[in-house]
Amino acid sequence: MLVSVKPIGPTEEDAMRKGRESEGVAASLPVENLCNVTALRKATRRISQLYDAMLAPTGLRSTQRAILVYVARYGSPTMSELAAALVLDRSALNHNLKPLERDGLLRVVVDQDDRRSRRILLSKLGEVKLRESTQAWQRAQQRFETSFGARQSAALRASLQLVASLDFHEA
């Protein structure tokens, strides 16, 4: 007696049928590389990989170093000020601060002038870690600029600063 066995997963025929059905969807999609958010996210991931690899020996990620730099530069920002400066919502900022606080690189304290607010303070250990990571950051910066070009890098930063400052809710 012969037993017919039906495949468990999709067959090649199923995949081809599905492909034909989705042709209409594919035709309505924008041409590749026209989506601004996809292009920016891909570029950001690639650059983050470079900086994170160069910073790895210091134990910091590029996002963590950016927070330490901002706090060092501006003193003791409130959570709201830091979130606005980094273009993060407060819950994402809080998530990013936890490991830095746990590792003793910064402290989150109640604002003495407004007890509803919290301020971020760089610890002595945070200052040391920031100085320690500067060379690695400079190497990453140099590697990027060597590959992309110094003038193009400066123009890119200016363009991205403008994009980050735009208020798309009103546009």
Question: Can you tell me about this structure?
Answer:
The chain is mainly alpha-helical. It has a domain at 35-143: Arc Repressor Mutant, subunit A (Orthogonal Bundle). The chain is built from 7 helices and 2 strands, in the order H-H-H-H-H-E-E-H-H. Strands 1-2 form a two-stranded antiparallel ribbon. It is globular. The mean pLDDT is 87.
Describe, in short, the structure shown.
This protein is mainly α and 171 residues long. It has seven helices and two strands. Helix 3 crosses helix 6 and helix 6 (124-148) packs across helix 7 (150-165).
Q: Given the C-alpha coordinates, what overall shape results?
A: globular
Distance between the termini: 71 Å
- Strand order across the biggest sheet? 1-2
Instruction: Name the structural class.
Output: mainly alpha
DSSP helix count? 7
CATH class identity of one domain? Mainly Alpha
CATH homologous superfamily label of one domain? Winged helix-like DNA-binding domain superfamily/Winged helix DNA-binding domain
The helical percent reads: 55-70%
Low-confidence stretches: none
Mean pLDDT: 87
CATH topology title of one domain = Arc Repressor Mutant, subunit A
* Percentage of β-strand residues: 5-15%
Radius of gyration equals 24 Å
Element-level helix/strand string: HHHHHEEHH
| CATH architecture heading of one domain | Orthogonal Bundle
> What can be said about the biggest beta sheet?
2 strands, antiparallel
The counted number of beta strands is 2
